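User: Modeling request: complex.
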Amino acid sequence: MHVEFLGIPRERAGVSEVELDAATLGDVLAVLPARFPGLRELMPAGALHSSVAASLNGDLFVSDPGTPLAPADRLILLSADAGG
Amino acid sequence: MAFGYHGRYLRVDVSSGEAGPVPLRDDLLRQYIGGSGLGTRLLMDEGGAAAHPLSAEAPIVFAFSPLVGTPLTTSAKFAVVCRSPLTERINDALAGSGFAIAAKSCGCDAIVIVGCAPQLSVLVIDDGAVRLEPAEDLHGDACSLVEAKLRAKLGTQYRIAAIGPAGERCVRYATISHDSRHAGRGGTGAVLGSKNIKAVAVRGTRQCEWADARELTQLSRDLSARSFGPATAKYRELGTATNLLTLNRFGALPTRNFQRGTFERAASFAPAELSARYPRVRASCVACTIGCQHVYELDHAAVRVEYESLFALGSLCGVADPAAVLRASSLCDELGIDTISTGGTIAFAMECVERGLLDQRWLTFGSGDAVLKAIDLIGRREGLGDLLADGSRRAAMAIGQGSMAFAPQVKGLEIPGYDPRALQTMALGFAVGARGADHNRSGAYEVDFSDKVDRRHATLDSVRHAIETEDRAALMDSLILCKFLRGVFTDFYDESAAMLRAVTGWDVTAGELRDTARRIIAAKRDFNIRAGWTPQEDILPERFLDTPLPGDPAAVLTADALQELVTEYHRQRGWAAGE
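Assistant: Request completed. Predicted assembly structure:
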């Protein structure tokens, strides 16, 4: 599956997207901080910090670590306060 | 009298030069706090709903708050409240920085200006003593130049709120500028200009006492510490401009007058590209620990960049040239006009040209030169600029031929950078907004970017979320605290109550502040009803209804669905239809 980064998550990851093996949102949140230490603050204890939002394929937003992911899915991680 | 207040406002009639204090009751202050809330109440009491917005009788209110002057981060803000010449409804526009502290130090909780000076003048308030000085030498000067000249003339202790040339010419979306920030929306600058007031200059020495200074200091330290965390990192590190690529990714970036939700060349003027091309520095308002202002150097000038300016003068007009977008933003700042309404009105005119409804062939989507020329004409109210200076709704009324269907406005206020078909909780927020389509009085886009709703399929459950963001904004705008702090609070109402207790000594609770927020929203609606509001105004333009956003078949909002949301909103507010 693909993970796209926007806003602060992109700043912290240093890349715009990455490919991962993950079956759930929780898997993504466990793997990413290990690969990109800058993301640790945004994903404490395997959950999303309130300043970060996650969208599945640009449609629904998800936050439950148990959310299943398919290999073709694109998860978008972005700064939650998208306005201003 | 409560701590944190002076217990009076300063009323100035610039026709006669007469000025004096007017007492403010404790119970009224507690009910409306300050900023937008207090300003709305004073505007109503001063007869603002009945007066033509650009008449001498029309009041304009500069309102402060009990938190102004405290060590609480982001509290150096003021609200300018008036009847909008653009919408003829309530208008409250906020700006930050030292003017708020200096004006409150003049010994008042608000300044109400009525009348019309016999010549272009500067209203000088020196520690509460009021005088008018001729300002013919400032005629036509840009906002920043006015500030610089007046501080050189009057002294560096003065803080200045000024209008640019557009305000003098009563462009209906002219701003009041201070320290490079603007009380931007709804035409506050036109109201001040109609009174022949080029600037308000203030300095003072009168401090308010706080009920529990020790507790306030502790709360301030704690809030400042949290303001350095991840909840504000976006504003600090990237600025609001980073929203550009986010909105584009979600198909919600208004493009070519809302004809699409994505702009194929958005990356060309996104922050990464701007930073690669132009030197960038950060700046902040007085008493702010966030530092959200990202300022780029272009042609030896400093250009402050915000998302709303980038979208309005960039994608909305189909312009991808970063230099043109920055120059356009800078020109708006110097003329003193709202970038959202400027871009929205120009984009509307571009579509009229594209459809053959307006014979101005130079005004085409994608032309940065055309945008710059149009802004210049608007600032001078020359030629086509005279029509566009009245905003997209009045322009559509003049052009006719069905153009109102795609004039990008609600109640006359141009729509900010969130396509309402792709963000449908925001669509409701726009439709019911007291001052028109507004992202600062309704933060409903936050709900759309969460797992609380399906952003492209609003339901009746979306309504309570929209109300919650509107209530929170009303309280933040009345306290006043910057909304960029909103993510740092664990319980916003509870923490706000603690701050107010420490400042004022009131036994205020979170529950009381929830009631206060609703009271302020209701006061704005009451003002609008007195000013002629009808239920038919709580609607979006035809363009946004019943047909999908091009390129996103799922992003469709039917007129019936929006009407259901609006009706439910009124019901949950406790307002009968048409009441």
